[in-house]
Write a structure and sequence with these properties.
Shape: extended
Strand order of the largest sheet: 1-2-3-4
Radius of gyration: 21 Å
Strand content: 5-15%
Largest sheet: 4 strands, parallel
Number of helices: 6
Structural class: alpha/beta
Order of helices and strands: EHEHEHEHHH
Distance between the termini: 32 Å
């Protein structure tokens, strides 16, 4: 089980977040996560809690090596949710622009091509062998 606190995100202190994460760890949490944890606070939280720390990558041009520093400072899992969202947004916007200007989506892969890529990614033949 992963336990999350939004103490920092809600305007609380880092100490409050650490206290909550400690309580979650004592209650049996397997992983702990403090939402909106600044990269400079990862080491402090990781060293204060006796559980693996989950951290969120926060896009910051001033800190381009966050993945490396988060891992170095003790984060065991780094979530890149906004990174995936930004890529998806750019792709959808590009499609909409193509539909608006060219009135077609022919630059896209066919459904057959996409399905083949998905099947390859998840090793679909292996999964199908498990089906009755």
């Amino acid at each position: 089980m992963t336990a999350r606190t939004d103490a920092v995100a809600a305007g609380g202190s880092l100490a409050e977040a650490i206290d909550r994460l400690g309580a979650y760890a004592a209650a049996g949490a397997d992983l702990v996560f403090a939402a909106n944890l600044h990269p400079s606070d990862v080491a402090r939280v990781a060293s204060a809690i006796d559980r693996p720390l989950v951290n969120t990558f926060i896009p910051d041009p001033g800190a381009p090596d966050q993945l490396t520093t988060s891992e170095r400072d003790g984060a065991k899992v780094v979530v890149h949710s906004s990174s995936a969202f930004r890529v998806a947004y750019a792709a959808v916007r590009g499609l909409l622009e193509e539909l608006r200007t060219k009135r077609t989506d022919r630059s896209l892969a066919t459904w057959h091509e996409v399905r083949a890529q998905i099947d390859e990614t998840v090793d679909a033949p292996a999964w199908r062998r498990l089906l009755p």
